[in-house]
Amino acid sequence: MKLAPAALVAGSLGMAGVCHAEISPWATNEGGRMRIVAMPPEPDGTVRGALQIEPRPGWITYWREPGDAGIPPQIMLPEADGATLTRVSYPVPKRIDNGELRDLGYDHPVSLPFELKVRQPGQPLDLTASAFVGLCRNICIPFQADFTLKLETVGGTPVQEAMILNAAASKIPEAPSDEFAVADHSISDNKDVLSLKLKLPPGSTTPPQVIVTGPEGHVLFDGQNATQHGDSYSLDMPVGKLPKNYDIKGKQWGVLVIAGKRAMETSLSFR
């Protein structure tokens, strides 16, 4: 994919009604648009929000690991602004094949839920947030927008903003459970094959899609030697070439398992 010059677009958030929640104007570029939605700070200083990205028809944006090419989304806060970004979550991505390239992302509108922590709860705060994403078609356009959030603790729950955030949260992969989890994992002595044993949701009849994220930029897509016995599913995944002198001991890799209409995400720890 060819990289086009960056498109820098600035947006500004204003007060949204008497509840002081924030829905920014859309910032736009050739490949789509994005905005930020943020709730008022909670008593402990937590601010729930979401970055909404809407690619134009035929364009895509990316998951936290974009696959063979692409730009992962980023949300950035200046350290001096009085708040810290504590979490960003990602809805279940789609594998998008483009010739020999395998991307992970979204070809439809997507909302990335996030949480901030305000250092002085109860105090009004003007906060600058910067979002940086990739929007790609035949070329990939970096897209940056700056937003000013006016955060103030108030009573009540802004309905529209809460509905947006609740809808975004419903698309996040579930945590491991007794009926859907990684039962076991191991890596070969020469670090070239990752073996997984999964517990699938009851009634799973088709092979799941398994995506493993290792060192930054390293994604495993392909499985082999797959076997299924009831809800138990095993497979091997070729690891490919790891970074030079990479020591896997003490590292954690991510794994996303998509089984039918359900998806589970967790970590793989290596000793």
Helix content: under 10%
What is the terminal separation in angstroms? Answer: 37 Å
Class from secondary-structure proportions: mainly beta
User: How many beta-strand segments?
Assistant: 22
Q: What is the average per-residue confidence, as pLDDT, rounded to a whole number?
A: 88
Contiguous helical run count = 1
Sequence-ordered SSE layout with sheet pairings:
Elements: E1 2-3, E2 7-10, E3 22-23, E4 27-29, E5 32-38, E6 46-55, E7 61-67, E8 74-76, E9 83-88, E10 94-98, E11 101-106, E12 110-118, E13 125-136, E14 139-151, H1 159-169, E15 181-187, E16 193-199, E17 209-213, E18 219-220, E19 224-229, E20 232-238, E21 252-259, E22 262-269
Parallel strand pairs: 1-14, 2-14
Antiparallel strand pairs: 3-5, 4-5, 5-6, 6-12, 7-11, 8-13, 9-12, 10-11, 13-14, 15-16, 16-20, 17-18, 17-21, 19-20, 21-22
Structure description:
A hairpin with a 2-residue loop joins strand 10 (94-98) and strand 11. The chain has one helix at 159-169; strands spanning 2-3, 7-10, 22-23, 27-29, 32-38, 46-55, 61-67, 74-76, 83-88, 94-98, 101-106, 110-118, 125-136, 139-151, 181-187, 193-199, 209-213, 219-220, 224-229, 232-238, 252-259, 262-269. The two termini are 37 Å apart. Mean pLDDT is 88; it is low at 1-20. The chain is globular, with a radius of gyration of 20 Å. 4% of the residues lie in helices and 51% in strands. By secondary structure, it is mainly β. Strands 3, 4, 5, 6, 9 and 12 form a six-stranded antiparallel sheet that branches. Strands 1, 2, 8, 13 and 14 form a five-stranded mixed sheet that branches.
